[in-house]
């Protein structure tokens, strides 16, 4: 994982992030409300012992059998212990959540040594899991030789700090983990800029509350080479300098991103005026979206058993069996509790989903709890204004699905299609369903297009279905079915 590693590049998010992470000295003011919460009587019905027990989650630790492999890994990877606080839902839900956290940690390049959940009514305001449990956790961390503790959930800066003081290793939360994966996976300039912006906005909230307890800045170094005049001054605290550096960097990134968004808008407008319908393949991360795109178009898009393998949307041209053109786009996967910073950062990418004519909502039917994924994804759809776009639910990985889970899914989503991107099962039906759902080519036209209107001829090729065509001395004679908008443009060339 690289989130907290200082790579030495001045003023990049990574550097600022790393520097500030070293000094997450922020102790959130302990408010009266916290005190009440901490001392409030428990209302749950579980036995006290059970409620407070740290429960080891079976099968979570990465198997490291070969010694040389262990050595190799410990050089390259961080060794982590996972911790989840379970406030509601069943034990199964808590385990699933921790299994997902394991998958996230491994995607980020960590070796998972141990995973534990604890049941409590609310996370502890000071240390997240409570002081006593934190001590036990320290023992687990020591005995496994872990160097990082990853908490499932979003921790307040003060909680991170206090927990770190007890367990004596670095503590990161789920949001930082997801940001880290995004940082590792972003490829395009825009993607990188968006992730950096998200990391900085995560960091800025962690700076809050530092204020006066910080030592005064010695002047000079912190601004780095790029800082210079105006970035520091005598008597200015480090936090203020940090804030300014961060906000300057954030404004710059925002400006860059907005330029990039403009050029994408232009592309998208073109698509809209061309009236080629857009189909967006969306869904939870690792659902098999890229595999499905490959299966549908032989696109050769990266497929990985990793979360967030795809960050840069890929668009492919496709055709229905009756020859109508449309675009198919692969999108970034969603995840439960997608950090707010990332929803913001990826809003423009996600908004393409809202602009689609059709969403193929891909669901991993082999997952233990696909319904939870379905509803998380729909929440994001609502957030980005995509809830009115027609949606075809595609239950993927049916080759590996538990029949019982499939049965439940069928009951919940009676119109869903069942496919396997691996075996190809159900793919023809899926193609037919897409063709059905796309806007119709409902205009029959017979035209004579002069040779100087080659642009219209190509549009008929691209957007329509040609019944007959003939090159004559005057131009191209065509008989075709086309979308309404194009039919309007062809009117003046009508021929009998
Ligand atoms: N058994 C089975 N596995 C599948 C199927 N489709 C995809 N997978 C596997 O699921 C994993 C994720 O596939 P991807 O296509 O990368 O999933 P994605 O939704 O694009 O994932 P992200 O881009 O990371 O959000 C890979 O290991 C695939 O081989 C399927 O039909 N059956
Ligand atoms: Mg993908």
Automatic annotation (TrEMBL):
NCBIfam families, A to Z: GTP_HflX
CDD domains reported in the protein's UniProt record: HflX
InterPro entries for the chain: G_HFLX_dom, GTP-bd, GTP-bd_M, GTPase_HflX, GTPase_HflX_N, GTPase_HflX_N_sf, HflX_C, P-loop_NTPase
Family assignment from sequence similarity: Belongs to the TRAFAC class OBG-HflX-like GTPase superfamily. HflX GTPase family.
Name of the protein this chain belongs to: GTPase HflX
UniProt-annotated stretches for the region Disordered: 215-236
Assigned keywords, A-Z: ATP-binding, Cytoplasm, GTP-binding, Magnesium, Metal-binding, Nucleotide-binding
TM stretches of this protein: none
Highest taxon of the lineage: Bacteria
UniProt-recorded Gene Ontology molecular function terms: ATP binding; GTP binding; GTPase activity; metal ion binding; ribosome binding
Cellular localization per UniProt: Cytoplasm
Sequence ranges assigned to domain Hflx-type G in this UniProt record: 277-442
Ranges of Gly residues composition bias in the record: 220-233
């Amino acid at each position: 994982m690289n989130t907290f590693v200082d790579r030495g590049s001045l003023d990049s998010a990574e550097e600022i992030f790393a520097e500030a992470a070293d000094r997450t000295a922020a102790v959130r003011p302990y408010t009266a409300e916290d005190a009440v919460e901490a001392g409030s009587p428990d209302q749950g019905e579980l036995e006290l012992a059970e409620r407070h027990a740290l429960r080891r989650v079976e099968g979570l630790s990465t198997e490291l059998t070969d010694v040389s492999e262990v050595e190799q890994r410990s050089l390259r990877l961080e060794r982590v212990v996972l911790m989840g606080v379970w406030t509601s839902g069943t034990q199964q839900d808590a385990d699933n959540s921790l299994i997902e956290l394991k998958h996230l940690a491994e995607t980020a390049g960590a070796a998972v040594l141990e995973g534990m959940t604890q049941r409590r009514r609310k996370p502890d305001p000071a240390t997240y899991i409570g002081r006593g449990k934190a001590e036990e956790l320290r023992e687990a961390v020591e005995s496994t030789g872990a160097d990082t503790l990853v908490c499932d959930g979003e921790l307040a800066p003060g909680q991170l700090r206090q927990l770190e003081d007890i367990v004596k290793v670095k503590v990161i939360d789920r949001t930082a983990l997801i940001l880290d994966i995004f940082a590792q996976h972003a490829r395009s300039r825009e993607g990188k800029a968006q992730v950096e912006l998200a990391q900085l906005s995560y960091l800025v909230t962690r700076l809050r509350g530092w204020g006066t307890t910080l030592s005064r800045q010695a002047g000079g170094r912190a601004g780095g080479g790029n800082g210079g005049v105006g970035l520091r001054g005598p008597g200015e605290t480090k936090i203020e300098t940090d804030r300014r550096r961060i906000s300057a960097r954030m404004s710059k990134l925002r400006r860059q991103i907005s330029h990039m968004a403009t050029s994408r808008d232009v592309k998208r407008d073109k698509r809209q005026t061309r009236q080629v319908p857009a189909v967006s393949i969306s869904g939870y991360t690792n659902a098999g979206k890229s595999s499905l795109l490959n299966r549908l178009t032989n696109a050769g898009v990266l497929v990985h058993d990793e979360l967030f393998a795809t960050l840069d949307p890929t668009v492919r041209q496709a055709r229905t069996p009756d020859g109508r053109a449309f675009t198919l786009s692969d999108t970034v996967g969603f995840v439960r509790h997608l950090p707010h910073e990332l929803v913001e950062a990826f809003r423009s990418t996600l908004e393409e989903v809202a602009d689609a004519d059709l969403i193929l909502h891909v669901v991993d039917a082999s997952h233990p709890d696909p319904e939870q994924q379905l509803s998380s994804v729909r929440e994001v759809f609502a957030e980005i204004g995509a809830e009115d776009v027609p949606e075809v639910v595609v239950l993927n990985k049916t080759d590996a699905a538990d029949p019982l889970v499939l049965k439940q899914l069928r009951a919940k989503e009676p119109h869903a299609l069942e496919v396997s991107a691996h075996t190809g099962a159900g793919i023809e039906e899926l193609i037919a369903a897409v063709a059905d759902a796309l806007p119709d080519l409902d205009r029959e036209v017979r035209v004579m297009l002069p040779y100087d209107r080659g642009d219209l001829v190509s549009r008929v090729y691209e957007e329509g279905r040609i019944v007959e065509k003939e090159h004559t001395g005057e131009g191209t004679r065509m008989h075709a079915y086309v979308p309404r908008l194009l039919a309007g443009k062809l009117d003046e060339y009508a021929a009998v």
